[in-house]
Write a structure and sequence with these properties.
By secondary structure, the chain is α/β, with parallel strands linked by helices. It contains four helices and seven strands. The longest helix has 15 residues.
Length: 115
């Protein structure tokens, strides 16, 4: 069961400037650590591009420490009409933590739906 979903709207995020994107990342980091450690909720993160990127133009520039309590991390291969970022499939986090169990299922927009 998912207790909380944090969704970054790709079309809105894609129109933000760099400083606003960093602000979104810091806000997500604070939201992820609101609960006391002994009562963590199951949280799903959904957002455009790469989670943890150092380049805000490619995704959400959170640090691993900001989202290490997430149960599910979804990278959407969409940002705005001029950019469809490659998702990382979490590979940049694999070297950070061997304690994460990670499954990857890449989905890309195909016509009207997702595939």
């Amino acid at each position: 069961m998912i207790d909380r979903v944090i969704y970054v709207v790709p079309s809105v995020y894609g129109q933000m400037g760099v400083s606003q994107r960093y602000s979104v990342a810091r806000t997500i980091g604070r939201l992820m650590h609101l609960d006391p450690p002994d009562s963590r909720q199951t949280v799903m993160l959904v957002g455009p591009g790469r989670w943890g990127t150092s380049m805000p133009s490619l995704g959400v520039p959170v640090s691993f420490a900001e989202i290490n309590t997430a149960s599910v991390v979804c990278e959407l291969a969409l940002m705005h009409e001029g950019l469809v970022p490659d998702v990382s499939l979490g590979t940049h986090f694999f070297t950070t933590s061997s304690s994460w169990t990670c499954f990857t299922w890449p989905f890309r927009r195909a016509g009207r739906g997702m595939r």
